[in-house]
Specification:
This protein has 175 residues and is mainly α. The chain has a 3-stranded mixed beta sheet. The two termini are 27 Å apart. Helix content is 39%, strand content 7%. Strand 2 and strand 3 (64-68) form a beta hairpin.
Length: 175
């Protein structure tokens, strides 16, 4: 599980990079490391095989963040998924369930989280970028629905190895 220092650091970075107001660390939902299957069951209970590429999710109803138990949170690429979910927490704190009210709004919500995640990765000198598929994702005219499996990022794709742990001293002040 992430330590308090990492949670605080990633929360501050999520707020600065997304533009949402920061919340106290004590208001963050619990972070639970779980299997890929558990995440898939939570997001796509009827089609789990379509959601096995998801690294993390913020479950608003149960107010919990589920992250893959295979993620190394000392690794910048891996902890960027937690930062992404923290952006969703900040969005939800600011706007409630309206952040997922329809497909276009959900795409905007995801886009903001991916932009913050990618800005963090860039700031850390990482060449990985996630969420590019959003540029090619469209809302179905007849349903206005976007399924999580349609907007997933695979956390292991092109992941460099041997990244040092991120510390606030390494980052310096965030923009």
């Amino acid at each position: 599980m992430p330590n308090a220092e990492l949670l605080s650091f990633l929360l501050a970075a999520a707020a600065k990079l997304s533009g949402y107001p920061e919340i106290p660390v004590a208001q963050l939902p619990p972070v639970r490391a779980v299997s890929v299957d558990t995440i898939a069951q939570a997001i796509c209970p009827e089609q789990r095989s379509g959601c096995t590429g998801i690294a993390a999710t913020f479950e608003t109803e149960s107010y919990v963040i589920l992250i893959r138990d295979s993620l190394d949170l000392e690794d910048t690429a891996d902890n960027s998924f937690l930062l992404h979910e923290f952006v969703h927490v900040l969005q939800w704190k600011a706007h409630g369930d309206a952040i997922f009210k329809d497909c276009p709004t959900t795409l905007k919500t995801e886009g903001e989280a991916y932009r913050a995640q990618n800005a963090y990765l860039k700031r850390e000198g990482q060449f990985l970028r996630f969420g590019e598929m959003l540029a090619y994702t469209q809302c179905a005219d007849d349903t206005g629905t976007l399924f999580p499996r349609d907007a997933m990022a695979t956390p292991d794709a092109g992941k460099p190895t041997g990244n040092p742990a991120v510390t606030p001293e390494m980052l310096g002040p965030l923009p």
